[in-house]
Amino acid sequence: MIFPEFVYRFMFSALSEAERALQENEVPIGAVIVYNNAIIGRGYNQVEKLKDATAHAEMIAITAACAHLSNKFLEECDLYVTVEPCVMCTGAIIQTKIKNVYFGAFEPKFGACGSLYNIIQNENNNHKPNVFSGIYAEESKTLLEEFFRTKRVLRDKTIN
Using alpha carbons only, what angle is made at residue 113 by residues 110 and 115, rounded to the nearest 5 degrees? Predict the structure, then answer.
């Protein structure tokens, strides 16, 4: 599927956040939240840095966007994230009423937007964001593969 140019531009910003996570030895996932064609929230995984299992890219971006708008709802906002959101992040997306979710790579082990689960579009939810996938999927997947390949090499060196 071909998307409008702005979708690629904002997803590229999310990829830049993921690269920042990679540089800090975090799982390379990045997210941005857009309102009125401007980024109002940014995040990258900081679970290790903050010693906080909830410090996912989406959660950090959502917190920043809510603070920016001084509102708990992000009804007119779009989320761009490099990897399919997990159950926790999907819950936050639904709770904040984000309008559109754009993500890169599917996450078959933890994804909650179509791969392992499809919580985001459950008919019982009071809010169902539009979901679009596959934007810079290969680039997003490559960052993850690079990160975990490096982790395996380091692990194997310490074992041997």
Answer: 60
Coil/strand/helix, residue 126:
coil
Digit-coded pLDDT (tens) for 41-96: 999 999 999 999 999 999 999 999 999 999 999 999 999 999 999 999 999 999 99
Six-digit token pair at 128? Answer: 């169902």
Catalytic residue among 5, 17, 26, 58: 58
58 is catalytic: yes
In sequence order, which ranges of 40-136 are alpha helices (DSSP H)? Answer: 47-50, 57-69, 87-96
Judge whether 82 and 105 are in contact, CB under 8 Å: yes
Global pTM? 0.94
Residue 131 forms beta bridges with which residues?
A: 101
Beta pairing, strands 30-35 & 130-133: unpaired
Strands 100-105 and 130-133: parallel
3-state class (DSSP) for residue 46: coil
